[in-house]
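WARN retry 2 of 3 for item q-0093 after timeout on previous attempt; input resubmitted unchanged.
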Amino acid sequence: MTRLERILILGAGPVGLGAALELARFGVPSLVVEKRETTSWHPKTRNINTRTMEIARGWGEAVYRRLRSIDTPEGWKSPIRFLTSATGEEYGLIETKGFEGPGADISPALPIMSSQELLEEILLDAARATGLIEFRFRHEATRLVQGGHPADSSVTLEVLDLANRRVEQINGSALVAADGAGSLIRSELGLDMEGPRGLSHVVNCYFRAEIEPLIADRKSVLMFVSNPRAQGVLQPLDGAGRWLCQIGVRPEDWSLEAFTKDRAREWVRAAVGVEDLEVDVVSLGLWKMNATVADQLVVGRVVMCGDAAHQFPPTGGLGVNTGLQGMHNVMWKLALCVKALAGWPLLGTYQDERRRLSQQIAAQSLTNSANVAKVHAAARSGRDSGLDPAEVASASRRYGNHLGVEFGAVYVSSAVIADGSEPPDVEDSYSDYTQSATPGARAPHVWIGRPEAQFSTLDLFGPGFTLLAARGGEAWMEQAAAAERVLGLRVYRYRMGSPGLQSNPRFEDLYRMGEAGAVLVRPDGHIGWRTAFPPTADGEVEAALRKIVSRPA
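OK item q-0093 returned
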């Protein structure tokens, strides 16, 4: 590929690194620009949920296994405790299994509770191993020269080499803006963030201290503490001395000059309840609680991803997960457009499929955050404080339990061909999820093969489309092969009942394609098209693919 066919990625956080890995799966090179010297060494986020880990499986067995190896030891994912201090009185508790994942009936993957700097290091290693990704650390983007208008056919980004102060312009076919909450690109494009912002000012403190022996068997995923000298949250990172805490401060104290490491150290001692505790404050960070979504996610040849596109309250740890899942939605589209295998209108379906969902997540996270604060206040007071029992139950149920948000998105756009079916009704779309193969939904995970050698339907999906045909669906297999030849799109093809693909009643019940039908799964694992009948004409799979990728006949 030429330089104009490579894709520029601004930001080497989890979303930027994930974008580079996804593009590499499709053979598309990228250039990652990052102003830091290397990836992050501050933990920031902890929760990498099950759906994100499904995406990580696509980056290779080694990546998935390395991520699993940094998971928090057993016992540190539940419950949530409310205490005067870590060693003091416990006045409330929420049992939550949400951080442990939905189980093998829903997914072959497992979530992890770890820390962002370890995640980034693993993704960086994987990215370098592809041979398709160039990194420019200590380079700061200063101006978007070209690429933000519908008529633009390429992107030009001005960057400053922080080592020698030299300014240059770099070119690419498109730009992935994963440059964080203070996104330069969002500002350059004049995009607005819709929704409430500045709801609270928080100091994020990464520290080392031997707290684990002090709390004995009172392990937990979150420790909400409240006493006259410390109110906030203690979060274990590894069960072996590495901790993170979130400290709410007044706006006038929201700076590293005002809130120093000494202040953080004293806060930790008060939060733990041990005045002479040895505390090594490794680093401090600042963030504001926002519940905002950019008014546009695609502008010209620029795609907004991660915190540059949306920012959520921390309840449930949805920020980085939603960022990675949104990135996963759009990278296959961008790859096919750059390779001239799809029409550029396909890129606009990212906006159609993810923006409204992001708005819903922002609103739900805000409500959940408020409800948890109420539960904390009620627990601290030792009485119900007139709190609506339904609010307590909702907060308890939803904290960490967000299967609907993880798996339940059903996309509606020109990249999905509806078949008139509707996804199953659930009581709470935030926390509840029922698998289905309704077009637009995540393709269901089902164990297939012999009982002693089972594997997941998700293992069949790769960097292309996947056609799953029923036992009598040989004609769909032939059509898929013909469509691949004509369109140049990779189409993996599998017929249930063929060697190693012994199906079962659960597969047939969930996929609902009858005796001779088929489903077409998009590269992001969502159903693009489905039929329960054999073909009635030639070229039906080709026609479906053309519609999905915006390629007219």
